[in-house]
Amino acid sequence: MNFTVIDMNKWERRAYFEHYLNVTRCTFSITANLNVTKLILTLRAKGIKLYPAFLYMVTKTVNAHHEFRVCFNKEGELGYWENMLPSFTFFHKDDKTFSTMWTEFSNDFGVFYQNYLDDMNTYGEVKGLSAKGNEPSNTINVSCIPWVSFTGFNLNIYTDGRYLLPITTCGKYFEQAGEILLPVSLQVHHAVCDGYHAGIFMNELQEMADNCEQWLL
């Protein structure tokens, strides 16, 4: 869980960061439909759940680019984590509430999937906002709205505007022209991410879905 402090005097993004954090403070979101036809069929054949596969795809993409890992640490220093873990929501059908949980990440999907199953078996019935507790600082937020295939999704975070990490949400997948599409929304802070980075995020998720046989071993 190493945290690298950014040297502002050497950071090529300093002018953009200061502008979008202090002058025109803003976040933005983008929603895209991922073609998950091959991914869904492969998961079904292997008896694997979609949600943990999505968590894996998001976390691996985030860990591949330091722009998605930039934040302030507890000391107020700006920097980026060496790697991130997913912190995700899950639904309680009986009382229609949700809880959050974090899971240890591994680049080996089989290891990560077992971590996910173990945590859900242990904490899946625990109610309250945080089911597992003791969440590390190096987590990213991921959620799912499986009841609707949205065309756009935006979170309005009313804080001091210094939350810099990405937030990812997926919706209900649907069929169109013989293909299975999954709506995915990404919300980022413009101080650390631009449209280019949002494009990288969506494109790499699509590449992982297209090449799922390479990591779904």
UniProtKB/TrEMBL annotation:
Reaction catalysis annotation: chloramphenicol + acetyl-CoA = chloramphenicol 3-acetate + CoA
An MF annotation (GO) of this entry: chloramphenicol O-acetyltransferase activity
SMART domains xrefs: CAT
Entry keywords, A to Z: Acyltransferase, Antibiotic resistance, Transferase
InterPro entries: CAT-like_dom_sf, Chloramphenicol_AcTrfase_AS, Cmp_AcTrfase
Residues of the signal peptide: none
Gene3D superfamilies, sorted: Chloramphenicol acetyltransferase-like domain
Assembly description: Homotrimer.
Matching NCBIfam families: chloram_CatA (NF000491)
Family designation: Belongs to the chloramphenicol acetyltransferase family.
Biological role stated in the UniProt entry: This enzyme is an effector of chloramphenicol resistance in bacteria.
Protein name: Chloramphenicol acetyltransferase
